[in-house]
Amino acid sequence: EQPVMQHSGEAFLMEMLAAMDQHMQQLRETQQGLVATVELACRRALDRNFGRLVLVGSAALRVETPGSDVDVVCFTRRDGAEAVGLPVDVLRRVHWALKELISQYSDYAASFSMEMIEDARVPILRVLWGPADHPIAVDVSVDQSRPVDHVRWFQRVGAAP
């Protein structure tokens, strides 16, 4: 049988996808470190009211591309009658806790920035780390179950790991 010749466009796409996959595997390690730092800040900001931090969006579905941000949801837990506050208030506390954390590591402080997006339908704290021209971005929201439901749906239908 004749070997099937690959079209040059097809070969190019395969090489490009392989290169993107390798790039993303290298990035994931750094992203995981940044997400772990965000989780620590959420724990410090919320103390007993911290529930869990959940990876959502393209990173959770493993369909991210270079330049994709990492989306996480910080879930709070009510401790008795004590109210946790509005999501934007929780994000302000996380913002403050992250500032405190980063200030302890002066080597990294210059590569680190944050932006509060309060006027969006869903308030977000955008955490940026790395070179200014292409930083890694982690977008933090609070108590948003819909993105978690989306990931679960894709997993249930077998379209995501």
Features:
five-stranded mixed sheet; 161 residues; Beta Polymerase, domain 2; alpha+beta
Provide structural commentary.
- The protein is of the alpha+beta class.
- The chain has one domain (8-156): Beta Polymerase, domain 2, CATH 3.30.460.10.
- The chain contains five helices and five strands.
- The protein has helices spanning 8-46, 57-61, 87-103, 106-109, 146-156; strands at 50-56, 70-76, 112-117, 124-129, 136-142.
- Helix 1 crosses helix 3 (87-103).
- The longest helix is centred in the first third of the chain and has 39 residues, at 8-46.
- The relative contact order is 0.16.
- The mean pLDDT is 87.
Summarize the structure.
Helix content is 47%, strand content 20%.
Count of domains: 1
The name of the CATH superfamily reads: Beta Polymerase, domain 2
The assigned CATH architecture is 2-Layer Sandwich
The helix-strand sequence is HEHEHHEEEH
Amount of beta strand: 15-25%
Q: What gap, in angstroms, lies between the N and C termini?
A: 36 Å
Number of H- or I-type helical stretches:
5
> How are the strands of the biggest sheet laid out side by side?
1-2-5-4-3
Classification by helices and strands:
alpha+beta
What does the average pLDDT come to?
Answer: 87
Please give the CATH class.
Alpha Beta
Q: Helix share of residues?
A: 40-55%
Largest sheet: 5 strands, mixed
Radius of gyration, Cα only, in angstroms?
19 Å
Number of strands: 5
Pfam families: MTPAP-like_central
InterPro entries: MTPAP-like_central, NT_sf
Protein name: Poly(A) RNA polymerase mitochondrial-like central palm domain-containing protein
Domain Poly(A) RNA polymerase mitochondrial-like central palm: 30-145
